[in-house]
Amino acid sequence: MLDEGATVRLVRHGETVRVGAWLGEGGEGAVFRLDVRGQPRALKWYHQHCADIARRTSLADLIDRGRPHDRFLWPLDLVESEDDPGSFGYVMDLRPDGFVGSHDLVAGRIEAGLVQTARIGFELADSFLRIHALGLCYRDINFGNVFLHPETGAVLICDNDNVGVDGLAGSVLGVPYFMAPEVLRGEALPSRRTDLHSLAVMLFYLFMVGHPLDGRLADRYDCFDDEARISLFGRHPLFVFDPDDDANALDIVGQSATLALWDIYPSFVKDRFVEAFTDGLDDPDRRVLESVWRKVLVRLGANVCYCDTCTAQIFADGPEACWNCQTLVRRPPRLVLGDLEIMLNHDTVVRSFHVDLDYDRDHDFAQMTRSPSRPDVWGLRNLSSVTWTATMPSGTQNSVAPGRSIGLVDGLHLELGPVSATVEA
Questions:
Q1: What is the DSSP letter of 186?
Q2: Is the separation of the CB atoms in 161 and 59 below 8 Å?
Q3: What is the C-alpha separation between 191 and 182, in angstroms, rounded?
Q4: Which of these, 71, 115, 347, 420, is most buried using a 10 Å CB contact count?
Q5: What pLDDT was estimated at residue 52?
């Protein structure tokens, strides 16, 4: 096994570097710090039983392809050691500070707001769409491979050596809690379609802090071992919120958090989970697509507003009463762009992809702002590079140059370059 201070060689770049501090270890190998041309990197070095020619060939292919997006801590180069012939590893970017394991959020060890949680879900869906668009599948979506930034909702995905060509056998099948029913039953190998199930499970965990198939049917098993999981999640899967069968409903006491969270979400989110874990359980072709999740989660993040009484974050299309203090919710004004409604809170920032749907570009497009002379009057500041045309309800038109603002009134119509929008009180 590799030791700190050992010398290794980057195969593609031909450089020799010294192994830095040990960072952690898993079933496949150990991870060390590595400095490459003054840049901090991470080195994953495989245990001997995992360092086979098939894995090396797969890694070489991934390195040739290049990362699909900056969210992936993608293999950058193969690494060898003259002192340990036959063994190898790969170098990747080091995870930045501020990112934590996704399980920390589900377990309640860290907190993230509703906007940030929706952003986490969006970035996951968008990331796996990019993988699948290249004809690849991830195979092993689970808590251990997803890191997130609770303050921004940014996501990083590691262990990308699991990625392979869709439909071909790989070195992993996944983690039972996240594996598709047909994989657990031994009827299929991981693929893009099984990734869709794993993605839906991950999203349900993030939003509802529970497993979508773990209800009272689990009480049948004295020991919740692998055989029990295969039975509950593979042979006889039943959604805990199945609208036609409550045999696997949640325990009111033991799973109260999931029940409470389910109630606060808008129906347009819950309907997709019902689709994913009813039709999608039996028919992989009817699973919710990444592109659908992406659109739903953009809408979800834009749907967040605040309770006037206790300032808790709530969903405008959720229950009429605040989940925290039970007072009736007063919805804020909203910016309507086609079928997307953006709640205009005091801290709302409209993103460029809200307007042009180009998810490769993500920058500030507009921002709520308060009038300097009348603090009770709010407006929308143009942060884009184009001049808007604003039409008042009276028919009067104004130009809103970049950096300027327009006061919000009910019925205000805005031409925002590629799209039209309306302010509704």
A1: T
A2: yes
A3: 11
A4: 115
A5: 87
